[in-house]
Specification:
The chain is built from 12 helices and 97 strands. By secondary structure, it is mainly beta. Strands 1, 3, 5, 7, 9 and 10 form a 6-stranded mixed β-sheet that branches. Helix 8 packs antiparallel against helix 9.
Length: 1443
């Protein structure tokens, strides 16, 4: 430690590292099998995920480096190992394996790195061990590790890496043999009944290379057996997976296989649980009324309409959670009992052998009780209702009868809900049980006793009889009374039993201590009876005497809010003091009433408004004193003050309560009348004339009081109205605003609180400096009012003057004024655009002139939505004495007359309507490519077709039917056959235009375009003569429901048709050989130059007869012919093999190897989408499909497309080959049921369209000859690819491809030639005369079309070329009918109908009519249709079948 060398850290154990390494992976069985099959190199190649190694021990050695500070943070790693762990796999004992380890310096400064590998007989480090290396920043050092296994088992080691700052380890793994159980990746149980066990059995094999010791585990509701086991290599075992769901729905879990080597695999388990068809015949059972100690019964049925055997149990609770709660309660019940027994036992005895045995016995008893509770099925156990049987099984399609017994224990109505827990149902089936128990029938012979008037503290005695009219005994007991008067009564006996049909006499004693009338009810409880027996006693107890000095208090007439006081005297005429309490029951219990002097100081109080409602009535009376004691034969003066706040008469009582006697002993009448004085406004209408906005104007209002009473008044603050819609029978006014001026709507103004939002909506504001006061009788006052106008125009608002206490509406003061606002002149009053082009913007100007000195806000909008007009700007403000211009822009989408209205909203002004009018001219059909007025197609070879693709879109609002024609020629005929592919003249050449027919034609010539619909158009041209063609195409349209056609488009099509021209030099070649007998003949060479003098590239074929040969520039003979292997069309994601025999015809042995020609212009791999699935259509309906099939265009067009764009350096050698290839691939089976019917091309045209294998360019042959000089190792490297599974293919036929026009730019996976075709063997040696089979494999990726040239290079000889073509697709078909309706026919008539099944794809398929009749066409069965044929083949050459 003194030297500064740190102690070597101890790495983690292999088991800990293995556990951490396996936690992050969740492998499926197939993925685990694939991973275990990898070699060490493959495992190394897949190590893409990099992770930083853990630091075992940080270092601090500043003396070992000149760099004092590292750019990396202390917690970051300086080195990144790749791979992060070294793994050896699938090795053999004694075989030496090597793996490189790259250590990259991630820091920005160099570091010293020392790599140490502990001595091991199995692992070695190539090069010096425990040596420091200096690694610059960003660079790396490579360490190689050798592994020499002694046997096939697991090994673990580690590599220790030390730097100046840290020490980290790189684990080294050697994975030996592994057991692999071939569990499936997914197991689907499909649909299963809930709460029912469904089992699936798997036969699992050990496909690994060592015996398997495994454990199986999963989660509920799945289970697996056996849970563990051992399986030798190659053996099999049955594994049962069970699914028992407790809840309905989808369930997904994992079946985990734990291997003894530490790996886990996961199999996905999926199932769906549903409820079975099991139910009760009824949900409620009502039993008849039953007396206590008797029983009654009823039955209920359980119907099992499912296919499973259902086991049922009757439970008392609804769910298993509630059932578990019941168990927990039983646990809590037995635990204190057992604990008490244990404590008692330990307290009584000492610890000895006998005690230990007793203690063990107690513990065993407790455990037995717990196990008994845990195993209890918790069946229904009820004393009132019982069901028999409580559990059982119901066979499929059967029912079970359940008996329900009712035994009441009390006289009441019983309701119980029991639940049937049954297999196949998630929720328990509820059953409501109802029954009523009857108890004893007992009553008194009279229910009420009136004892009249009695004196206080005098005992009175009575007798009552309790009668039992029921069949059972009636135990009774008096319920003690709870009132003060009730405690003065005594009953004997208070409890007993009344025999059936007998009576019981009860003596009653009464000694009152409280005076006054009374009525007491005494209750006798009868056992088992829901209601007690009631005995009522009523009477009156006489008390002491007293009187007032006045018979009543009469206040007379009092003004509202003005207080008035009266006096009276209370005399006690008895010889004892009397405590008293006075109150007025009719008076309010709320806050004291408000006087007028208090109210005038609160002008904003809500009491001024009539609609104010208080929660509690005001307290208007004041009594002084309200309680006290009057001495014997004495008196007490009392003052009663009334401040009325309620208009009307007062007829109340002053109530006297006397202590120890009672409440409300005496009541003194009290009368009064509250009057509100009548006030009037002398000038109820105040006219202020013209008022400017936001300016204050003052006026005065005179208030007159002609009555004999004073009054209190207040000018109420202004409230702002809330607008509400009224019913249609209400006559409303006009709302004025920016959008609402002149728009009459029915409204209702309802007073609301004064808020700023509603304040802004008021027409005018008013206020007052002295709003409230008191007006004396027969006088008048003047009230000042201030007014401020807020809106323009005639304004009339109402100010309300409230009189304190006045019933009804307040007095109204009408305030009228005229508000002055902005005046805006709008011109012109009408805008006529005239005839304008469609789909183009056309603008007119609208002027807004403000002729006043107030700014005016405006908004302009169209009267209808989705208008063809728009306004810019649509809103704004016109400054005072200024003018604003608004642009009205029209963009028409139809060639009709448009008339709409423009609305101009001016603030506080009526709406101005401006009529708009325009007529659209032109056409709403537009093209996506330049089409008019001229279309120049440049040059094209004669006898070959040229194409120009474009799209037409209807941007109008009506459907248009387009008709294309050529000026000077008759209208295009509907073609019955799709255009033939381009090719040289001869067999299969395209038909030339007849004399008098146009050179260019459009397809389709007639089409219907709905609004917004786009259609693909193809312009096709072909000329048999060399000429420059200029033709004018005309497009007429029938728009909407019009009957006449009109011309909408006109374009001049120009194309120069030329012939290919070749200049040869020399024109003749002569060979002369003078041979002597001893001379050996050698090849003689003469140069031949070919020059293309035309403006387009093309391909030529040089064909010579023996003994003449064609050689390349290196004087190497070219192959005489080219072989072709056509795989035809196969189903997507399958593969096909074809064989070819190769024979060595030379006298020398030859070495050969295969490769693919890498020229991208010669080899083509493309994708086309699957043909669309057409829905069947009716015979009587015409339908135009919104999209069609289109060809894969490969000819030159004016604009470049992804199919035609090619590199200029490669055009000379590959353009014509590409044209021929693409033309061979084209085949349109477009079908339009309303307008066109194109048939597929025949086999002769397809065969003629295939490229001649002998047509090759000289540059391509030179490239092929140069490839022949490569070694077989290079060819092997070029053919490396991932292999696909091989499947024998079907018969060969020409390649056919179809696609949709808008999928031309669809992205597809990029495939190499080796991923589509394969050749086996890649190289070899043939002896003279020896033959060998060469296997060509085509991998049918989805919708792929491939054409590749394979080269067989002969060492020291020529290269032979084989053209490989293949296509993959899927079947596609179309039915022309989806329904056959024969209508009303005779019952014995045999009817026939024809349905056409069309093969719209590129491959044959068979079809079967399911559930066909057993009858024949000659003898059909009645009512059962016969289909002929039922299982034919729909071939490609005959694309339709008519069953």
């Amino acid at each position: 430690m003194a030297s500064g060398v740190p102690k070597t850290p101890t790495p983690p154990t292999p088991r800990i590292l293995l556990r951490e390494r396996l936690k992050a992976d969740s492998l499926t069985p197939s993925a685990f099998q694939k991973e275990m099959s990898l070699s060490t190199k493959q495992r190394l190649a897949r190590a893409k995920k990099l992770s930083l190694p853990p630091i075992v021990q940080p270092q601090d050695k500043p003396g070992t480096s000149h760099h004092k500070f590292s750019a990396a943070a202390p917690e970051q790693r300086s080195f990144q190992p790749c791979p992060p762990e070294v793994v050896f796999q699938n090795y053999s004992p004694g075989e030496v394996c090597e793996v490189p380890l790259v250590l990259r310096n991630r820091d920005k400064v160099p570091h010293l790195l020392k790599v140490t590998l502990k001595s091991s007989p199995y692992f070695q480090l190539v090069g010096p061990n425990d040596v420091c290396r200096k690694v610059p920043p960003g660079l790396y050092t490579t360490v190689r590790i050798l592994f020499t296994p002694g046997q096939r088992k697991d090994y673990f080691h580690h590599l220790l890496c030390t730097t100046e700052n840290e020490e980290f380890i790189v684990p080294i793994w050697a994975i030996g043999g592994r057991a692999i159980l071939d569990f499936p990746d997914q197991l689907d149980f499909s649909t299963c009944p809930v709460k029912y066990t469904t089992q699936k059995t798997l036969l699992v094999h050990n496909v690994g290379n060592r015996p398997a010791r495994y454990e199986l585990s999963t989660q509920s509701p799945f289970s697996v057996t056996p849970g563990m086991g051992t399986l030798d290599v190659g053996d099999a075992v049955e594994v049962a997976v069970e699914f028992r769901p407790l809840k309905t729905g989808d369930h997904s879990r994992s079946l985990v296989v734990h291997y003894d080597t530490g790996e886990d695999t996961h199999t996905s388990l999926h199932a769906r649980a549903v409820d079975a068809h099991i139910r009760l015949d009824r949900n409620t059972v009502t039993l008849e009324k039953t007396y206590i100690s008797m029983s009654n019964s009823a039955t209920v049925l359980i119907h099992n309409r499912s296919d499973i055997t259902a086991r049922f149990q009757w439970k008392a609770v609804d769910t298993e959670e509630q059932e578990e709660q019941l168990r927990q309660r039983q646990y809590h019940r037995i635990y204190p009992q057992q604990r008490h027994k244990l404590y008692s036992f330990l307290k009584e005895r000492e610890v000895d052998i006998t005690c230990r045995e007793r203690l063990a016995l107690l513990n065993h008893t407790f455990q037995s009780e717990v196990a008994k509770i845990r195993g209890d099925p918790m069946l229904l156990d009820d004393d009132i209702f019982s069901l028999v049987p409580k559990e059982g099984e119901i066979m499929p399609k059967c029912s079970a009868e359940i008996s329900v017994f009712f035994t009441p224990q009390a006289a009441q109505v019983y309701e119980r809900t029991v639940y049937c827990d049954i297999s196949g149902r998630e929720n328990r089936l509820p059953l409501l049980l109802m029954g009523e128990g009857l108890g004893p029938r007992v009553h008194f012979h009279f229910e009420e006793l009136n004892i009249g008037e009695v004196f206080v503290r005098v005992t009175h005695r009575y007798e009552a009889y309790l009668i039992n009219k029921g069949p059972i005994e009636a135990p009774f007991k008096l319920i003690p009374p709870t009132t003060a008067m009730g405690s003065c009564f005594t009953f004997l006996p208070q409890e007993g039993i009344v025999a059936p049909e007998k009576l019981q006499a009860i003596r009653v004693s009464f000694c009152p201590t409280i005076r006054g009338e009374f009525e007491e009810q005494f209750c006798f409880h009868v056992a088992e009876s829901p209601k007690p027996v009631i005995f009522t006693v009523r009477g009156s107890v006489i008390g002491p005497t007293f009187h007032f000095d006045v018979p009543a208090l009469h206040f007379g007439d009092i003004a509202f809010g003005f207080p008035h006081t009266l006096k009276c005297c209370l005399f006690n005429t008895s010889l004892t003091p009397m405590g008293f309490s006075l109150y007025i029951p009719g008076d309010g219990l709320g806050v004291p009433s408000v006087s007028s002097t208090t109210q005038i100081g609160k002008p904003s109080s809500q009491l001024w408004r009539k609609e104010v409602r208080v929660l509690r009535r005001l307290q208007e009376f004041t009594i002084n004193p309200h309680s006290g004691t009057v001495r014997a034969l004495g008196s007490q003066d009392i003052k009663v003050t009334l401040c009325p706040n309620t208009v009307g008469d007062y007829n109340l009582e002053l109530v006297l309560d006397v202590e120890d006697v009672g409440r409300k002993v005496f009541a003194l009448p009290l009368t009064a009348r509250c009057i509100v004085p009548t006030l009037r406004v002398l000038n109820p209408v105040v006219e202020l004339g013209h008022c400017c906005l936001k300016v204050l104007y003052d006026e005065k209002v005179t208030l007159v009081n002609d009555s004999d009473f004073p009054g209190c008044y207040c000018l109420l603050p202004q409230v702002w109205p809330c607008i509400h819609l009224l019913p249609s029978d209400f006559t409303g006014g006009v709302i004025r605003g920016i959008k609402g001026a002149s728009r009459a709507v029915k409204i209702r103004c309802k007073e609301a609180v004064s808020t700023q939002e509603h304040k802004e909506e008021a027409a005018a504001w008013y206020s007052s400096l002295a709003p409230s006061g008191i007006i004396e009788a027969h006088s008048s006052v003047q009230i000042p009012i201030t007014l401020q106008a807020q809106l323009l125009g005639q304004c009339s608002i109402t100010a309300k003057l409230a009189v304190f206490g006045r019933p009804g509406s307040p007095l109204e003061i009408r305030l009228e004024c005229v508000g002055q606002g902005p005046v805006v002149y709008v011109h012109p009053r009408e805008i006529n655009f005239g005839s304008i082009p469609v789909l183009e913007d056309c603008s007119k100007t609208l002027h807004l002139a403000n002729q006043c000195k107030i700014p005016a806000a405006f908004q302009v909008e169209m009267a209808v939505e989705r208008s063809c007009w728009r306004i810019e700007p649509s809103k704004g403000v016109v400054p005072p004495s200024s003018e604003v211009s608004v642009a009205v822009i029209a963009n028409l989408n139809d060639t009709v007359k448009f008339q709409e209205k423009l609305k101009v909203f001016i603030e506080n002004n009526p709406v101005t309507i401006i009529p708009l009018q325009a007529v659209g001219v032109g056409t709403t059909v537009v093209s996506d490519k330049p089409l008019v007025p001229k279309l120049d197609l440049k040059s094209c070879f004669s006898f070959s077709r040229c194409f120009y693709h474009f799209q037409l879109t209807n941007r109008g609002r009506r459907t248009q039917r387009l008709y294309w024609s050529t000026e000077g020629f008759r209208t295009f005929r509907r073609s019955a056959r799709a255009p033939a592919p381009a090719g040289p003249p001869g067999k299969g050449a395209p038909p030339m235009p007849r004399p008098g027919s146009p050179v260019f034609k459009l397809c389709p010539a007639q089409v219907d375009l709905r609004p917004g619909q786009t259609v693909d158009m193809v312009l096709e041209g072909c000329s048999s003569t060399v000429q420059e063609v200029k033709e004018r195409l005309l497009c007429h349209a029938v728009v909407g429901k019009e009957t006449a056609k009109k011309q909408i488009l006109q374009t001049d099509v120009i194309c120069n048709f030329i012939c290919p021209a070749v200049q040869m030099s020399p024109r003749a070649i002569a060979f002369r050989v003078e041979k002597k007998p001893s001379d050996v003949l050698t090849l003689q060479y003469q140069p031949l130059t070919l020059k293309n003098t035309s403006s387009l590239p093309f391909s030529v074929v040089l064909d010579l007869e023996q003994p003449f040969l064609v050689c390349n520039v290196k004087r190497k003979p070219l192959p005489a012919n080219c072989k072709a292997v056509d795989f035809g069309c196969i189903i997507n994601d399958t593969e096909q093999e074809l064989k070819m025999e190769m024979t060595n015809c030379s006298p020398l042995p030859v070495n050969y190897h295969w490769s693919f020609l890498t020229d991208s212009q010669v080899n083509t791999i493309r994708f086309i989408p699957s043909p669309p699935k057409f829905k069947p259509r009716s015979l009587n309906k015409r339908r135009v499909f919104p999209w069609r099939y289109s060809r894969a265009v490969s000819v030159e067009e004016p604009t470049e497309t992804p199919e035609t764009t090619q590199d200029s350096a490669q055009e000379d050698s590959a353009l014509e080959d590409s044209v021929l290839e693409d033309s061979a691939l084209e085949n349109s089976d477009e079908q339009d049921s309303a307008q066109e019917d194109h048939a597929q091309e025949g086999p002769a045209q397809e065969d003629a369209a295939l490229e001649d294998p002998a047509q090759e360019d000289s540059d391509q042959e030179d490239s092929a000859q140069e490839d022949s000089d490569q070694e077989p190792e290079d060819a092997e490297h070029s053919l490396e690819s991932e292999g696909l599974s091989s499947t024998p293919g079907a018969s060969q036929r020409p390649l056919r491809v179809r696609g949709l026009s808008w999928f031309s730019e669809m992205e597809h996976p990029k495939l190499g030639m080796q991923e589509v075709f394969d050749v086996r063997p890649l190289w070899g040696e043939l002896q003279p005369g020896e033959s060998e089979q060469v296997t060509f494999t085509f991998f049918g990726h989805a919708n792929v079309v491939a054409r590749v040239r394979a080269l067989c290079h002969v060492q020291g000889g020529p290269s032979y070329e084989v053209v490989l073509t293949g296509e993959a697709s899927c079947p596609s078909y179309q039915l022309d009918l989806q329904e056959i309706d024969w209508g009303l026919q005779r019952f014995n008539k045999v009817l026939k109908a024809e349905v056409t099944l069309r093969n719209t794809g590129v491959m044959e398929f068979t079809f079967v009519v399911p559930n066909c009749s057993t009858g024949t066409a000659a003898k059909p069965l009645p009512g059962v249709p016969v289909v002929v044929p039922t299982t034919p083949v729909c071939p490609l050459s005959h694309p339709t079948a008519k069953p």
